[in-house]
Amino acid sequence: MDIFSLFTDTFKKIAAKGPKVNAEERERIRQVVGELGDTLSDSLLLTIIYLSHARHARDTEFAEHLAHGRDRLRESFREFKICGGLYNLRDRFGQIFSPTKYAVDMDRMKEIEYLIRDLAHGERTVIDFLGDLTDWMSTEAEALSKVAVGTDDWNQRRKTAVMAIDGHIEHLRKKQKDLVRDVRHIIDRM
Questions:
Q1: Residue 74 sits in which domain range?
Q2: Is 10 inside a domain boundary?
Q3: pLDDT digits (tens, 9 = 90+) for 75-108
Q4: pLDDT band at 128; cut points 50, 70, 90
Q5: Are 141 and 63 in contact (CB under 8 A)?
Q6: CATH of the domain at 93
Q7: Which of 45, 129, 165, 183 is least surrounded by Cβ atoms within 10 Å, i.e. has the fewest?
Q8: Is residue 135 part of a domain?
Q9: What distances in angstroms separate CA 144 from CA 19, 131, 134, one per listed residue?
Q10: 3 assigned to some structural domain
Q11: Nearest by Cα to 129 from 161, 163, 89, 173
Q12: DSSP labels, 12-63
């Protein structure tokens, strides 16, 4: 079958199913993007809360709180659990005859496609940042465990760590705000 016949057959199938397919595909897009946004936003919020608790932990618990960050936060940002649906959606937009691609207004198709691609890239950046953050927490906890609690050196390390935590919290809040904006932007354009 040549490309023209394939296109014609596919277009006829899409046209025959008409609005029902488009409505179902749009709903599928909204669902994937919404679930991703909720899951990733919850992960960011949980990380912010965890860091806030670490920041205010007693001296004797501070290093321990940082050390356990990876294990306690791991479930909230399993990369492939979060990414799977989005990457599948991005791939469906990349297919030439995908009904998903044609479920959106033709004038907005490229815009939605770019937004989904940007969201996938931004989501990957957040996942990488969270991985780097838990690595930092482990390293900081190890360094703190080598210094006696209450000494000038320990107090200085804690002060530096708390300042870094404040910076991480600010960064996470910005990422969460950006994520919500991007998800709304996609859904509003459907």
A1: 19-188
A2: no
A3: 666 544 555 555 666 666 665 556 555 555 545 5
A4: confident
A5: yes
A6: 1.20.120
A7: 45
A8: yes
A9: 61, 20, 15
A10: no
A11: 173
A12: HHHHHHHHHHHHHHHHHHHHHHHHHHHHHHHHHHHHHHHHHHHHTS-HHHHH
